Amino acid sequence: MNIELNEHSSDVKDILNRYHINDTFWHFSPKYYDAYIRKICGDYLYESSAAFKNSKFSWVKNFFLHSCFIILGAFVSLMKSFGMSKPHGKINEDARILACPFCWRYVWFKRLPHMIKESIRIVYHPLFHYDYYKKNVEAYDRKVVIPEFYQFTFRDIFYSLFLIIRYYRRLSRCAKELDDIYGIYTGKFSRIFIFPILYGGFVRRFIEDHIKSNDGLVWLFDYDYDYKYIIFNNLIHELRKNDVTVHIQHGSFVTYNPAYCNPVCDYSLCCSHREKEVIDHFNAFDSKIEILGAPLQTFDDVPKDDKSEKQWDVLLLLAATDGIELEPMKKVLQFFHNSTYKCKVRFRPASKSTDRLKLCSYLNGMDESEGTTLYEDVSMSKIVVSFSDDALYTAIRNNNPIIYLRNIDIRKNYEMTGRSAFFYIINDSELSSVPVSELILRYRECNYDSDSFVLNNFGYFNINEISNRLNSLLSKLL
Fold first, then answer.
1. Which residues pair with 367 in a beta bridge?
2. Domain assignment of residue 375, yes or no
3. In 132-228, which ranges are E strands?
4. Dihedral, 407, 408, 414, 416 alpha carbons, nearest 10
5. I need a labelling partner for 181 at 20 to 30 A (CA). Which of 267, 327, 365, 453 fits?
6. What is the phi/psi pair of residue 57, to 5°?
């Protein structure tokens, strides 16, 4: 079901048209121009954005300084890449499947080469965080696939700088008017204008220089937040009429964002029946929605229903501290520190040292998970309070009452299949209204009927079944 653009979309479009943004920079087709406008609206409504504007400077000066900072970052990234070791082995340029990992902090595509029967290329776009790329490529089996990494060129960088300098007054005034609509002044202009300008030239050059096949290709993407996602889709369909784009969801298990669940790809492969209903609701661009399962997640097949004696009343599962969850996590830690509950804190393993440094003053002597698995921590706790999507699978299989904390939650359009009185989705300000003591006392009564609950909300986890489904779809598209 298509939904209307939000109430400010016509104002956003009027401003962009008045400053000739699309005609000057993107040349989006109507479909992708609409997607670009929706993305802007979604960013202002639902997304956090870091800012380093100086209030002493005018909007124009702030815009110019911010732009130069990003261009400098691209230049430094390019210089770092010169010392990068080249991949050993021959890249299969005849492969008709290209997987483009957009979310460079997570290695979600590492399993695809083993699942897909056809030849596949793993292609990374330019990164500002070079160390993440080095970590990512180590996760792939080089005997199966050689990850490719394409960096900006000097031409990309200097041409972007030329455009920004030439049009910076127009862009900065346009950005100021967009901020005025929402009354939000958080430096979103970098995401709306600067990064798309920088990546736009790269995407066109990449397609023209590195895609030699005249046959129709299938492009696999794993992300739907970024503006360059829209640019890629627009240019692929402009330059290669027979290609098909496919969005593989990594799983928005208990929440979603319209920008994430409104895919611009030709196909969107989602994890579960619940996700399909959500995407159908927001599917403004008529992407074909297929239920695949969860190929990009790795979950242990944990036992079900462990009701043995518990050591902890509450297990607090924290998320990475580099996003919008930092302040809510501080509040939640303070809430449980002031309580009488016996609590254990588990950090996200991939960023534990950094996260602990930022939150150490809020731990107040709480016990921390050390040397135990997620399943062991969950099975020894009565209830689970989590900022993590992925960890919920283990808690559901173990039938723990769950309090899931999410700073962004659009619950008026959301309902989990089979959601029970033991599953709460709240933000940090609502925690005091949850009957935590009652959940702890009644934890033995919690029963999600987890087989069907997991299937409907998380999706299929049988990797062989998922692989067969994926190969069947790809064979139809090729």
1. 344
2. yes
3. 148-149, 218-221
4. -40
5. 327
6. -100, 155
- 35 inside domain: no
Instruction: Please name every residue paired with 219 in a beta bridge, in sequence order, or none if there are none.
Output: 98, 245
Q: CA-to-CA distance for 132 and 107, rounded, in angstroms?
A: 10
**Confidence band of 96 (pLDDT split at 50, 70, 90):** very high
CA 436 to chain centre: 30
Q: How confident is the model at residue 4 (pLDDT cuts 50, 70, 90)?
A: very low
How long is the chain? Answer: 478
Residue 312: its pLDDT value, please?
A: 93
β-pairing, 288-291 with 244-248?
A: unpaired
Q: Could you report the per-residue pLDDT of 281-335, keeping only the tens digit for each?
A: 777 778 899 988 776 655 555 555 556 678 999 999 998 887 777 888 999 999 9
Q: Is residue 403 part of a domain?
A: yes
Token pair for 66? 């911010």
Q: Is residue 109 part of a domain?
A: no
**What pLDDT sits at residue 51?**
46
For position 333, which CATH number holds? 3.40.50.2000
Q: Does residue 382 surpass a pLDDT of 80?
A: yes
* 109 CA to centre of own chain: 13
The number of angstroms, rounded, from the C-alpha of 414 to the middle of its chain's C-alpha atoms is 19
CA distance 374 to 381: 11
User: Which tokens go with 389?
Assistant: 């999507």
How far is Cα 242 from Cα 428, in angstroms, rounded to an integer? 47
Start-end of H helices in 313-399: 326-337, 352-363, 374-379, 392-397
Measured distance CA(106)–CA(30) in Å, rounded:
32
For the stretch 221-276, pLDDT in tens is: 986 556 888 899 999 999 999 999 998 877 655 555 554 566 789 998 888 887 78
**Position of tokens 């691209």?**
74
- DSSP bridge pairs for 97: 120, 218
Q: How far apart are CA 27 and CA 234, in angstroms?
A: 9
Q: Which two tokens stand for residue 32?
A: 């992708």
Going through 110-193 in order, the beta strands assigned E by DSSP cover 120-124, 148-149
What single letter denotes the amino acid at residue 295?
P
* Cβ neighbours of 180 (radius 10 Å): 12
Looking at residue 56, its pLDDT comes to: 55
Q: What gap in Å lies between CA 98 and CA 95, rounded to an integer?
A: 7
pLDDT at 362 over 50: yes
**In total, how many domains does the chain have?**
1
Print the domain residue range for 395.
Answer: 312-457
Distance CA 49, CA 353 (A): 24
Q: What is the pLDDT of residue 335?
A: 93
Residue closest to 253 by CA, chosen among 384, 405, 390, 413: 390
- The CA R_g of the chain, rounded to the nearest whole Å, is 23
